[in-house]
């Protein structure tokens, strides 16, 4: 075994021994560690500074109790988290997730991914993530507000515009960010730059809501065009029907593709003539109903995973949740004819699924590059708040487009430098890792 391989495996083994039960976090680290041997080999300083061991240990994990009384007078207790993982590139930045599956492993994997994603944007932001095992599904506005107020009553002392700037993720949209900000303001006074993804009337940025989905399509379009293809006349499957999925579907349609299926956690709709995104928005974004309520003359609803669909399509855009595509589902996607998988969700593909994409020469856009448009636009929101300005939609969208193109160019150039062909996963990981690791070395042992 080479010195660098030996170093990588020693650090991983130690991490595994210390927390074997944190499977999602270990998976995210394994996926990164599988790809960085060439840079560790090239730069002995990474071993000298023990960068990998420094990198996998969060700078701080805040865990707290979130007690709240619901409308019926029942007292509920949830767990709250904020993982402040790495600040080498700037203040901690990353979303909040409210979902019953939330635990420390999921928070750590998301924060770990965020470090590298944020670095790829080229903007001065470190990596963090937070959330709660609170389930917002089916809750009234009053219950959501009470939970958010209690959550922020603790979180407010750990965040700030120069320290840590949370935003949304699964289960946290503009409504939740609004309630969280209201409580922050009661406790600390006006400080608009402390949260992003705010409603527009509360100094949020135009274009933030659409940014992750639009950014995914901009990034994927760059990747397709670099390989002589485009969205034009392509059949596309998008998982999820939340924030990222809806704006992905919208932009794919603008780019000439047809989205034939989308899903929620219960099932999926299939419509060969294309999803009616206006109807989808009405059902999911406005009325917060189940996807089974979507009905047109040509649509069919089925229970189960969308990745079990047996139809021919060209491009798969997973936009729901982690590990939604395992090896068998990846095989099905390939058998259905898809030549491109590009990720809107964080870590939607297992390591075995990724290996299968690579064996079958599937064009693969890894999440940390492909879905970076949301956090990039959050940083544009921070810039607007800090300069007491409000940019027109066109300005935000142009900046987002330029950032996504720049991310693809950086990844592509790294592929050229390291002779990786179009292995964009390794290109993205190496480009992101070197940025963060070099910044850490400049700052010494901190
Ligand atoms: N909102 C943002 O700006 C960003 C979100 N992401 C990632 O995108 C993904 C989706 O997030 P959002 O759209 O913001 O959340 P959301 O809460 O608006 O929507 C989540 C969607 O995923 C579906 N879903 C959740 N669990 C599922 C499961 N086990 N199986 C199938 N479907 C499931 C839900 O039904 C819903 O349609 C997540 O992985 C998130 O981390 C990534 C970058 C930024
Ligand atoms: O907008 C942000 O700060 C965070 C977005 C996010 O959570 C993500 O990129 O996964």
Automatic annotation (TrEMBL):
- Catalytic residues, chain numbering: 129
PROSITE patterns tied to this protein: GLFV_DEHYDROGENASE
Q: Which GO biological process annotations does it have? A: glutamate biosynthetic process
Presence of the UniProt keyword Oxidoreductase in the record = yes
Residues involved in substrate binding: 93, 114, 117, 168, 378
Indicate the transmembrane segments per the record. none
Top-rank lineage group of the source organism = Bacteria
Supply the NCBIfam families for this chain: PRK09414.1
Instruction: Write out the similarity annotation.
Output: Belongs to the Glu/Leu/Phe/Val dehydrogenases family.
- Name this protein carries in UniProt: Glutamate dehydrogenase
Q: Which organism is it from?
A: Jeotgalibaca dankookensis
């Amino acid at each position: 075994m080479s010195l660098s391989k030996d170093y990588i495996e020693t650090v991983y083994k130690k991490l595994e021994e210390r927390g074997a039960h944190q499977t999602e976090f270990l998976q995210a680290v394994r996926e990164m560690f599988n790809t960085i041997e060439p840079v560790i080999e090239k730069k002995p300083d990474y071993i000298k500074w023990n960068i990998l061991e420094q990198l996998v240990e969060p700078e701080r994990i805040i865990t707290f109790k979130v007690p709240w009384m619901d409308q019926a007078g029942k007292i509920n207790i949830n767990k709250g988290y904020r993982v402040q993982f790495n600040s080498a590139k700037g203040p901690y930045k990353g979303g909040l997730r409210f979902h019953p599956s939330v635990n420390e492993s999921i928070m750590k994997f998301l924060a770990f991914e965020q470090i590298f994603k944020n670095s790829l944007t080229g903007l001065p932001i470190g990596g963090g993530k937070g959330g709660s095992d609170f389930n917002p599904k089916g809750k009234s506005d009053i219950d959501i507000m009470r939970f958010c107020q209690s959550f922020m009553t603790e979180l407010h002392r750990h965040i700030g515009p120069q320290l840590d700037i949370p935003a949304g993720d699964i289960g946290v949209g503009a409504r939740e960010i609004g309630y969280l900000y209201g409580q922050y303001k009661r406790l600390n006074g006006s400080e608009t730059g402390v949260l992003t993804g705010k409603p527009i009337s509360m100094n949020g940025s135009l274009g933030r809501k659409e940014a992750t989905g639009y950014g995914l399509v901009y990034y994927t379009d760059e990747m397709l065009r670099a390989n002589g293809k485009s969205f034009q006349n392509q059949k596309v499957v998008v998982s999820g029907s939340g924030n990222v999925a809806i704006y992905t579907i919208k932009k794919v349609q603008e780019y000439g593709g047809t989205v034939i299926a989308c899903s929620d956690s219960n099932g999926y709709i299939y419509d060969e003539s294309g999803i009616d995104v206006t109807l989808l928005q009405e059902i999911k974004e406005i009325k917060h109903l189940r996807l089974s309520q979507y009905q047109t003359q040509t649509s069919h609803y089925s229970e189960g995973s969308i990745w079990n669909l047996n139809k021919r399509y060209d491009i798969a855009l997973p936009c729901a949740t982690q590990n939604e595509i395992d090896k068998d589902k990846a095989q099905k996607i390939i058998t259905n004819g898809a030549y491109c998988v590009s990720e809107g969700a964080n870590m939607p593909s297992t390591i075995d699924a990724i290996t299968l994409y690579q064996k079958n020469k599937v064009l693969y856009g890894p999440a940390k590059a492909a879905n970076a448009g949301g956090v990039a636009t959050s940083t544009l929101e921070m810039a607007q708040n800090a300069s007491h300005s409000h940019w027109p939609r066109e300005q935000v969208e142009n900046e987002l487009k330029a950032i996504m193109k720049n991310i693809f160019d950086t990844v592509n150039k790294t592929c050229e430098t390291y002779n990786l062909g179009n292995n964009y996963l390794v290109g993205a990981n190496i480009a992101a890792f070197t940025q963060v690791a070099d910044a850490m070395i400049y700052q010494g042992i901190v």
